Amino acid sequence: MAAASKNGAANGKLRILLIEDNPSDAELELAELRREGFEVSSDLAQTRDEVSERLSKHSYDVVLADYNLPHFRGMETLEIMREKGLNVPVILVTGALRSMTAVECVKQGATDYVLKDNLTRLSLCVRRALAETALKEQRKRAEMQLAKKVEQLARSNSDLEQFAYVASHDLQEPLRMVAAYTQLLSERYRGKLDESADKYIAYAVEGALRMQALISDLLAFSRVGRNGAERANIECNAVVDESLKNLAAAVQESGVIITRGLLPTVHADRVQLGQLFQNLLGNAIKFCGKDTPAVELSAERQGDEWVFAVCDNGIGIASEHKEQIFVIFQRLHTRTEYSGNGVGLAICKKIVEQHGGRIWVDSQPGRGSTFRFTLPAISADRDDIHENHS
Ligand code: ADP
Asked: Which residues approach ligand 1 with their CB closer than 6 A?
């Protein structure tokens, strides 16, 4: 395939294909371009075969085509170029063209048109066409670069996820050994060595157990969506019921009052959706203040999506931490204040994003938090909403 000429007009050199049956008209066009400072070289063609052959063999900056030749119509050039995958600007140079026809030609892909009795416009049209082509090429190059970057990013993301998965998975076994044997040491030799030995062994046991918890959370995080989500139409009410069953101990201990609005049916992975509700409800109960915790769960249809809200009356979050809390292992408190490893919200974010939604928090310290997330709605009607049955 012949590419556009490398010369371009940047250095004043111009390679053109002239589709013209009248030699004196062709000469006039070339003279006009030279007069305007172009260093022009050209080929002439008059029939479909000639046009096709020239375009295949050579590369041109621009095509100047007469609208009507005895055996060819200038506009056919566009069709030939389309077949060849070429994108050279075509300027119609014609004796007379009704303005309607001219507009139609431009609509069909001609770059511009010039009347033969007004050739002084020619160089302006050529310059404009060249600038447009250069811009198009620039845009195409930028798009290609962007696509390459996106691909690189996706690849490095998946490499990273694979690394986290393999590392956390393979570390489990040796860590299990360390934890088991330090625990054994602690049981067998407590009080039999000196006091420092007991202390050191206790630290080692604690460290190993803590590392086990972190590794297992990291594994849980990297497992989200790893085997492909199994999507189905899921009734959120039923999923929330299950999540609350899993949180029964915390619910009972805290005395939390939970209110639930109308929740829809969504197209989602049941297990992941359960994890999402459980993490958010669990946090809403865990990060309560001095008052009895109160949690409100609701969903509101906004356009093509559902916006879910989990609202609590707990300790709240300072605005500078609103993004940070969704990053894995990021916590705002020590484990003695509130238990946890800082993985729950990172998992929530991953689940929501894998379902095509967003998650964020609105909060004021000391006045509670509202975690919101979106999920795509199944259909335009409201059949996907169900009465609260808690
Ligand atoms: P974890 O609960 O194990 O700490 P998360 O990822 O679930 O991990 O939460 C990260 C941090 O976000 C928590 O440590 C806490 O500081 C803050 N957070 C999460 N949910 C709430 C909430 N409902 N109210 C106040 N702070 C919260």
From this structure: 279, 283-284, 287, 312, 314-317, 325, 331-333, 340-346, 369
